[in-house]
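[09:14] KT: can someone run the structure on this one? pasting the chain below
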Amino acid sequence: MDTITHGIAGALIGKGYFSDRYGKVATFALTLGAVFPDSDVVANLTGDPLAIVKYHRGITHSFVALPFFAFLLAILTRALIPWVRRRFPRWRDIQSPPLGMLTVVCAIGIASHILLDGMTSFGTRMWYPISSTRVAWDWLFIVDFSFTAILLIPQIIPWVYSRGPDAARDSARSRSRALRMWAVFTASTLAIWFLLRVAAYPFRLWTAVLLIAVLAVLFFAPAIGHWGFRVRRARWCQAGVVAMVAYILACALAHHAAMDRVKAFAQAKQVAVDRVAALPIPPSFWDWGEAIRTPDGLYEAQLDLRRNDPPAFWWVPDSPPDSFIARAWTLPSVQLYWRFARFPVIRSFEQNGHHIVDFGENRFSDGRRQSPQPFTWEVVFDNSGDVLDQGWLTYGMLQQRMRRLVPQQPVPRPPAKAKS
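[09:31] RB: done, structure tokens below
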């Protein structure tokens, strides 16, 4: 899940359950804990293209290391308070919770990050270093705009209906704020609808219109009878946490229904299953990508749970085994990639006088994309089987290129073992 959404989730929990008793420091600490695990992206600065596979969602995303990191963040937070008091006079009286409680708050933030990442298809190594297995429950897409909105709106509404120094102007101010927020969320909804339509994802216009109407109710209904002014911020945020949990449960139930259909297909067709999953497709939990990895290829399908007809699977075979694929398998980079990938397809072909082997991951696609999928690792050989180049393929609207791992120079084969 994206770091911004993690931070919004941490702030929601902090405001709902800790801020009234322990103040703004508790909300800050919980938000800090919620975004901290993604600090492992600094490993990308090493220049190693495989850093995202080696280090991301590893030790900082681990329940094993959670107590240690929570304690360090609590110490850091307490150390920042004197600096904040000096620099910001309005916060001169800010107080910190006891170190033990601050550690608990930071731990809750880190735990929320680990659990939310475990709900995505990318998964997370939540028991590292005891286990390097990626836990991926496949309930949420990595970037879920609906989920982010559910976390954000309960924090905006208390601001819209907050009381000011002049009670007579509260209504006018709240109407202005509500209108501005509704306009921002409406524009965002239409922009997301347009972008997903361009990308051929299943987001219907009537659904966008319905969401805009729901947003209008959420922002304007609390003005009726001025009841929105009487609800404390903590109550709004607690309601947001309930809505968050309800949305996650709805996604989990939808995932279960999607898994039943893909398993039914595999059983009916007697498919030799290596791995099977129902993968979320944005932006709705009604839409899923079905994937079955077999010893020699991949079955894929798109599923709309609102329809009762069985999903139509298509077959994506691996290229027949050859010497170049066998040579690619000896590379440490390919072995590391294969441990990361869940639903890869192997393609071996000739291009521009070279032989190419692609390992294309299909975990983050809906099957419509004709070009190789995200997280495609490519190895380029000369005709003698020496490695010329390898790295991730990157894609844009108008270009396609490879981010190289090594300079363009032959990598000789390992020496053959002497026969005994």
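[09:33] KT: thanks! Confidence is low (pLDDT under 50) at residues 396-401, 405-411.
[09:34] RB: yep, looked fine to me
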